[in-house]
């Protein structure tokens, strides 16, 4: 049984994340989407809110579960016995940061491979921060996030 962990901040989950989840769910027997702590980010949504949104957008994938962890990613990966860490790559700008994390994670634990899935061209520009910026000014985010969590995001982020 091949298990993969797809970690991230998911603040909030976007169509880009959902696309990576869908593709990872076809490559692996089981996928855990893991809401983890990025020490340099200050999330807008609580961990519980991010988990709830992820659960709402992954119900269609029977082999995908959502979990949360506030420790080192490699410790979690080791604990659950995952064979892979899945990351999404958008543009070259993501590469250096992701490459650095993949190498550091391998140095800490070499029992799992980091697997990069390239985003679709239509999601290349998409990020949680772009969604938050647009939503906070009352802009239309319906093209960027799954429909069933649209209202939750709007309610929380619209300033005026
Ligand atoms: O969506 P993000 O913010 O780019 O995801 C980054 C994340 C949360 C996957 C990364 O910060 C992480 O792995 N955090 C867990 C703590 C950890 O292991 N940090 C060292 C990574 S080299």
List its salient traits.
alpha/beta; globular; 5-stranded parallel β-sheet; 5 strands; binds 4'-phosphopantetheine; single chain; 6 helices; Rossmann fold; 160 residues
**Overall shape:** globular
CA distance, first residue to last residue: 49 Å
Please identify the top-level CATH class.
Alpha Beta
List the bound ligands: 4'-phosphopantetheine
Helix content: 40-55%
Structural Rg = 15 Å
The residue-averaged pLDDT reads 95
Instruction: For the largest sheet, list the strands in their spatial order.
Output: 3-2-1-4-5
Question: How many separate domains?
Answer: 1
CATH architecture: 3-Layer(aba) Sandwich
In this structure, how is the largest beta sheet organized? Answer: 5 strands, parallel
The total strand number stands at 5
- The ordered H/E elements are EHEHEHEHEHH
* Structural class by SSE content: alpha/beta
Quote the beta fraction. 15-25%
What is the compact description of this entry?
With 160 residues, the chain is an alpha/beta fold. The protein has helices at 15-27, 47-57, 73-80, 92-108, 128-136, 150-157; strands at residues 3-8, 30-35, 64-68, 84-89, 113-118. The protein has one domain (3-126): HUPs (Rossmann fold, 3-Layer(aba) Sandwich).
């Amino acid at each position: 049984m091949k298990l993969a962990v797809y970690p991230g901040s998911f603040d909030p989950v976007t169509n880009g994340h959902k696309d990576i989840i869908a593709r990872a769910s076809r490559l692996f027997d089981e996928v855990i989407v893991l809401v983890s702590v990025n020490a340099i980010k200050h999330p807008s949504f609580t961990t519980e809110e991010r988990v709830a949104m992820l659960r709402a957008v992954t119900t269609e994938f029977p082999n995908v579960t959502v979990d949360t962890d506030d420790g080192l990613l490699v410790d979690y990966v080791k604990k659950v016995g995952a064979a892979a860490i899945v990351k999404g790559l958008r543009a070259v700008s993501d590469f250096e940061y992701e490459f650095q994390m993949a190498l550091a994670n391998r140095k800490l634990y070499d029992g799992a491979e980091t697997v990069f899935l390239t985003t679709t061209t239509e999601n290349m520009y998409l990020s949680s921060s772009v969604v938050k910026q647009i939503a906070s000014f009352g802009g239309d985010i319906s093209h960027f996030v799954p429909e069933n969590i649209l209202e939750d995001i709007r309610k929380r982020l619209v300033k005026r």
